[in-house]
Design goal:
The chain is of the alpha/beta class. Helices cover about 15% and strands about 25% of the residues. It contains 1 helix and 5 strands. It has a 3-stranded parallel sheet with strand order 3-4-5, with no helix packed on it. A two-stranded antiparallel sheet has the order 1-2.
């Protein structure tokens, strides 16, 4: 099936949506998501602390120009 998945006016090549929990670290999370081919990723709000610039942030590993992030509470 080569039909793109259309969501809110944006076209995706994959219908797979993956989560970011249960991985050892952010680098492993990124590798797993890339291996899956997913373009849409759910992220728990508590895992993304944008106020602490001195700490690693999951969003640093998931470029917004490549992945669509769906917040998950």
């Amino acid at each position: 099936m080569n039909d793109p998945f259309l969501l809110a006016g944006k076209s995706y090549g994959s219908r797979l949506i993956v989560g970011t929990g249960k991985y050892r670290d952010f680098a492993e999370t990124r590798r797993a998501i890339e291996a899956s081919g997913a373009e849409i990723v759910t992220v728990a709000v508590r895992r993304v602390n944008i106020t602490r610039r001195d700490e690693d942030n999951l969003l640093d590993y998931l470029p917004l120009d490549r992945f669509t992030i769906l917040p998950n509470t």
